């Protein structure tokens, strides 16, 4: 077995849930099972000539940002490997800079928004798109596996609705959802319905625009009996208790029932 394939097998044992990306010269590549996975996801051709007959997907280094973005949109995490040293060079791991959460959401809207809207309109989610259609805030119960599919801060939640195309899509999907007669569980399934509830809670409480707050408050009332997601409200309150430098200044912590209030023309809390 060649050194590169041996390195691949070793890293897959260490990181079974990650794709192993090799950087070599002016190209980057995926091998074996990872190559087949990447080929299926990205419609990239498989070459069996590059590495002693093993399946490989090979692309120019210049395409790395695009490939990384597309794979993270599909929920794949990666570990990078490149050669280090002179004549006795060896393969060593390096950190891959993951695209920002907002960039992933924007890219996902570009490539998959139409399918998501069609599925909402038809009343049944067939593919996994709730993470970008209805972005939610990371909470205390989330694990590393949820990283990249949740928003880390209240500033990021504001950025989602500051991107014109994304904001338009999110509003359209919320409106299409409100037009359905089924329950949230019937449309999304139990787990994805919880995700939508968390997203609606986030935007109903923290969106800058009153119209957006009202729209998502409607989603909460229509599909969740007016009950806000407690993990999300706790995450909002935690950031407001210890605000970051980039926490939106118009969000405040209050002593009102529910604990979260939005300062604006109207003060809104969980019991309003």
In short:
The chain is of the alpha+beta class and 272 residues long. The protein has helices spanning 3-14, 32-42, 64-73, 101-122, 130-133, 154-160, 164-178, 184-188, 190-206, 210-224, 230-241; strands at residues 18-24, 27-31, 47-51, 54-60, 77-84, 90-94, 251-253, 260-262. The chain folds into 2 domains: 3-94, DNA repair protein MutS, domain I (MutS, DNA mismatch repair protein, domain I), CATH 3.40.1170; 101-262, Serine Threonine Protein Phosphatase 5, Tetratricopeptide repeat.
Keywords for this entry:
6-stranded mixed beta sheet, 2 domains, 272 residues, Serine Threonine Protein Phosphatase 5, Tetratricopeptide repeat
């Amino acid at each position: 077995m060649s050194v590169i394939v041996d390195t691949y097998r070793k890293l897959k044992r260490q990181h079974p849930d990650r794709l192993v990306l090799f950087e070599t010269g002016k190209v980057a590549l995926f091998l074996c099972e990872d190559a087949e996975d990447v080929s299926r996801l990205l419609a990239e051709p498989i070459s069996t000539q590059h590495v002693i007959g093993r399946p490989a997907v090979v692309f120019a280094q210049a395409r790395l940002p695009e490939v990384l973005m597309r794979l993270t949109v599909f929920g794949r995490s990666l570990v990078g490997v490149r050669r280090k040293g002179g004549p006795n060079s060896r393969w060593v791991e390096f950190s891959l800079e993951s695209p920002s959460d907002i960039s992933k959401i924007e890219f996902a809207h570009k490539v998959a928004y139409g399918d998501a809207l069609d599925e909402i309109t038809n009343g049944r989610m067939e593919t996994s798109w709730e993470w970008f259609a209805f972005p939610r805030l990371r909470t205390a119960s989330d694990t590393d596996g949820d990283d990249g599919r949740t928003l880390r801060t209240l500033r990021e939640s504001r950025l989602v609705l500051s991107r014109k195309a994304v904001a338009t899509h999110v509003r359209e999907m919320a409106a299409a959802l409100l037009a359905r007669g089924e329950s949230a569980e019937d449309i999304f399934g139990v787990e994805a319905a919880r995700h939508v509830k968390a997203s609606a809670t986030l935007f109903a409480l923290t969106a800058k625009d009153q119209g957006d707050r009202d729209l998502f408050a409607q989603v909460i009332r229509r599909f969740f009996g007016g009950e806000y997601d407690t993990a999300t409200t706790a995450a909002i309150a935690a950031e407001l208790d210890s605000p970051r430098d980039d926490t939106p200044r118009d969000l405040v912590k209050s002593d009102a029932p529910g604990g979260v209030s939005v300062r604006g023309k109207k003060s809104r809390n969980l019991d309003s």
